[in-house]
Amino acid sequence: MTLMVLGVAFPAFFLSPMIDVQREFANHWAALSLVSPTLNQALDPGVVAAIKTHPAVARTIPVRELGMSIIVPPFSDRALFVYGVSEADLQYLMDLYGLKLAEGRLPRPHTNEIILSQPMATNRGLRVGGQVGRPVNFRDSMPTEMTVVGILAVPDLWLGFASAEFLQSHERYASLPVGYLVAPAEGRKAELDAWLEQNVRSNQVAVTTQGGRLLKASQEGRRMRLLLAGVESIIAIVAAVALAVLNYIFFAQRQDEFGVLHAVGYSRRWLILRLIKETAAVVAAAWLLGALLCILVLIFVQASLYAPKGLTLDLLNGGAWLFTVPIPIVVILVNALAMAWALARLDPVALVERR
């Protein structure tokens, strides 16, 4: 029982950052939205003009996107964007998010310099002076090396910025399509996102909003939970079959005891309730032991695997613990049914006469 609890709870916790991090990645979309071409071509000028003149739009910022690979243990990686923005727009974004430099400085225009938030830098083990892009890391969608010159003191935003002037003038970046970060007028973010989703999104235009990102994360989480539920169902079935066999042996060894108790006046209902209490006590102790072992293992995994990548395991994740509940329920239920069936066939008089 302990091993079953550990075997179900640990994978649920171990894989949860793959979903939780998607919600963290969506944090910076609480203040901005992104409109970008789905193909390697320019946005339609009419679409751009409609966005710029919409009353819910406070500012549009032209950007080029550079993909940077982020490691998500145990065996996943995701591409996040470093946005190429002008010097003036970078200062606007710094003020919008309330960003401060933890170390280093801002990128200078026309240089291959970038700044990263603390989570992104931690994930890749980068400090000021470190480099990303190819050939440093071939998973990065950057055809040249980019040098980190600053780290942003922000614990919950995954983003970075590069010089738009450099990207525009460099032959290997100039052909990148231009998208637009869209800042809403005060108090009109929800209105802006709804309009972008309904009127701007198309086969040629991609729209990124916080709501869309969170919806995608929820869908991925649902698929993973269904997978874990399938695995747990198999474990529960195996537990039920194994327990039925053990209960048969258990009853065979104690049938004289049950027969005498029944013969002296204890009802079958009392005997079944007594067995359920015994089983529940053992199951509760096993669940607590399994939970304790799981927490100890998870603390070690957090310190050795996730923390160095800027990620956190949520030990209070109720969803992960709920996956362990059906197993003790199945164990108790199968035990009660097996004992009820065995006691219904028990002849206490025959047992006493044999004794």
How is this structure best described in words?
- The chain is α+β, with helices and mostly antiparallel strands and 355 residues long.
- The protein has eleven helices and ten strands.
- It has two domains: 25-216, no CATH class; 220-354, no CATH class.
- The protein starts with a helix and ends with a helix.
- α1 runs antiparallel to α7 (210-263) and α7 (210-263) crosses α11.
- Strands 1, 2, 3, 4, 5, 6, 7, 8, 9 and 10 form a ten-stranded mixed beta sheet that branches.
- The relative contact order is 0.18.
Q: How many helices in DSSP terms?
A: 11
Runs in which pLDDT lies below 50 for 5 or more consecutive residues are none
- Structural class by secondary-structure content: alpha+beta
The geometry reads as: elongated
**Radius of gyration (Å):** 30 Å
The helix fraction, in percent, is 40-55%
Quaternary status of these chains? single chain
The profile of the biggest β sheet is:
10 strands, mixed
Mean pLDDT across the residues is 85
Straight-line N-to-C gap: 35 Å
Order of helices and strands: HEHEEHEEHEEEHEHEHHHHH
Query: How many E strands?
Result: 10
Content of β-strand: 15-25%
Number of discrete domains: 2
How is the topology of this model organized?
Elements (H helix, E strand, L loop, with lengths): L1 H24 L7 E5 L7 H9 L3 E16 L3 E10 L1 H11 L3 E4 L8 E5 H7 L6 E2 L13 E7 L7 E4 H6 L9 E6 L4 H12 L4 E4 L1 H54 L4 H39 L11 H5 L3 H19 L3 H7 L1
Parallel strand pairs: 3-8, 5-7
Antiparallel strand pairs: 1-9, 1-10, 2-3, 2-9, 4-7, 5-8, 6-7
Helix pairs in contact: 1-7, 1-8, 7-10, 7-11, 8-10
